[in-house]
Amino acid sequence: MTTNRCPVELELDTETLVILDETRLLLGFREPQEHEALEACLRELDLELEPSDSAESKRFQGEIVSHTDRLFWVCSSLGEAIEGELYDAVEAAFDEQLEWIGPVYHHPHVPGRAGLQCPLPNALLVKEGVVEAPLPTDIELREDEFRSRYLPGYRYYTIVDPRSHPAHEVRARLLEHERYDSNGVLFENMAMLYPYTFEPVDTFYKPDAATGYRGQWNLVKTHIAGPGRTAWDLHMGQGTIAVIDSGCDLSHSDLYFVGGLGGPNNIGDDNPSLPGFARGHGTMVAGVAAATTHNLKGVAGVAGYGAKVMPLAFTTLTDGWFVHLLTFAVDNGADVINMSFSMPSWGSLVAVDQALTRAYNSNIVLCASSGNSGGAVGFPASHKHVIACGATDATDSRAAFSSKGSALSVMAPGVDIPTTAVRGTGNLSDLDRRDWLSDFWGTSPAAAHVSGLAALLLSVDPSLTPDEVRAIIEGTADRVPLSWIYDQVSANGPRNADFGHGRINALDALLAALPPRLRRKP
Amino acid sequence: MPIHPLHRERLERALEAHETALQYTDKPLSPTRTKVHRVLLELGRDDDILKLIDDFVDSPQLADEIRYDGYSVLSARGIKLPETVTMKVVNGNGKDPQPILRFQFTVRSLTVLADWDPKSGACTRAAVAGDGASAA
After folding, report:
1. Res. A341 pLDDT band, cuts 50 70 90
2. Does B29 contact A at CB distance below 8 Å?
3. For chain A, which terminal residue's Cβ has fewer other Cβ atoms within 10 angstroms, N or C?
């Protein structure tokens, strides 16, 4: 057992002295942790996760704690010092799951929780030019050359066994040598609060405890919008998403359409020629992908801030119309085409294949729903150039209706999704208009999430090809649920037949698209 | 060509919603939102502003005039914008950027953009850092 022996005062550099907050720790785990299980374990120790601003607690308004799936800030529920036996009990409770335990320090000149930070116990920055001085021989340090490359003047070292030799101890040993000084050996400090977090002001974004409305959980789950650092902190969408569907409500105040008034056969409110589509299906799909975001009303769409919808409606459900609509989208500047329908009998048609291939060759990203039969992935989702999207729920479980198989690409939320509805037909009322819906379900909204994410990626880097967009979306997807095995190999990372490459993670996807193109290791 | 009938219908639907919001008694709005609704209504219900948009929709020359000196254009037409509202022409994003007529105002910390895109009609939203349309 190693009790907490962190210094009460720590000199970060010659200018900065911080003071130990004995009631808090940062726990670093080797693997992602489930929140509920972790909280239960912490309760046994009279500890709790550091609380963020939330619908349940308004106490910390605007303060979002920088928990990740492996790093968790914890504090004593009783306000007691976490030291001695309690510190040992934390180590014992999590045992080998823990990579390290980090101390939390408070900056004396920064009030409140904004001044809390953790000098990470597994990292040190050593000034270039003094590294030739002897490093401790009994402590294994490894240089991370990638990190060193972007730290001019310093080299970045990780400590292989930070639980036995935490960074403050290694640094103290180094400072004993005359060639090192406080500015020559630095910690990497992690702040407890995020500096920013974008949450849209759309009416139905946040949950409403009074009515039981869950809010746009789908955007939070996929790391599109806050709380926390999310995709929208990096970039808001632009571009044009063609929605080949039943048509859209063209006067909806929460949807923004491209010029030309919707393309051929878009009759607006609804499409009586297509009784097979749910009433207003196109309007619902469009809202998930690109409802106007941050406009003080209704819902937010994945790519909605600057993105526009090109609503393309079937007049009759024929392969000929499908080819026609694909061609219209290609010729009129669509960046992404969303196809939230499944027509297995069109899979072998040469004209359809050619139209999809032409769209792909025109650098348009194609997304389709995997289908709601629970069977094999339908068409056009199964086409080689189309990203096939299945549906998950709020717990990241696969929706039972979500079709699966080798063609499945990724998952996205597809149960109880808030979105736009045809005039007066919704169950959510804003500004006295029932123009929104709280519970759109199916692989249709799942595909719309992926279309919106593709539009976000293309607005970050318009030069991305459809294959690159697919690689980023698949390669950065979260492999959920944690109990599920991703045992099949693909060029874009592990996958399986039920979840494809996993549930989309918009933040990681945008990080991968921003230069330099950092790809998460499989 | 004046404002397209569908764009006018969409605008009317949005304006009616703003009016309804201000009439709520059981769900009072914050002072900020009340002000936003009021300013947007003032803009959308002003016939002279709608006439200006009518002309803007198919007149690149008017767009240039507003870019150069929007204040004079407003004065010549006898238009007085609501307090704190400014007007300018910005370039839309996309492969074929079109001029967009933008009315902008700020209520406390909230900056609101009310854009008129000749091809797509009205779009209002709160501004964010690095907002899509660039100033012309």
Report:
1. very high
2. no
3. N
Least reliable range by pLDDT among A8-22, A380-394, B19-33: B19-33
Q: Can you give the pTM of this predicted structure?
A: 0.72
Cα A319 to Cα A266, A339, A347, A372, A431, distances in angstroms:
17, 13, 10, 20, 40
Number of compact structural domains in chain B: 1
Q: What are the tokens at A52?
A: 């963020």
Domain range holding B28? 5-135
Across the interface, whether the CB atoms of A236 and B130 are under 8 A apart is answered: yes
> A137 pLDDT band (50/70/90 cuts)?
confident
Give bridge partners of residue A75 from the DSSP assignment. Answer: A24, A48
Amino acid at A305: Y
Q: Helix A466-475 and helix A443-460: axis angle, to 10°?
A: 110
Distance CA A382, CA A370 (A): 8
Residues of chain B neighbouring A250 (CB-CB closer than 8 A): 6, 10
**If DSSP codes are grouped into helix, strand and coil, which group holds residue A511?**
helix
Give the pLDDT of residue A178. Answer: 76
Q: In chain A, what is the greatest distance between 2 CA atoms, to the nearest angstrom?
A: 83
Cβ contacts below 8 Å, chain A against chain B, sum to: 77
The residues of A that are catalytic are: 245, 281, 444
Q: E strands within A84-234?
A: 98-106, 116-127, 141-143, 154-159, 185-191
Opening angle at CA A480, ends A475 and A483, nearest 5: 130
What CATH class has A217-513?
alpha beta
Say yes or no for a CB contact (<8 Å) between A252 and B10: yes
A300-325 burial by CB neighbour count: b if 16+ within 10 A, else e? bbbbbbbbbbbbbbbbebeeebbbbb
The type of residue at A113 is: R
Residue A296 has its nearest CB partner, among B9, B36, B117, at B36
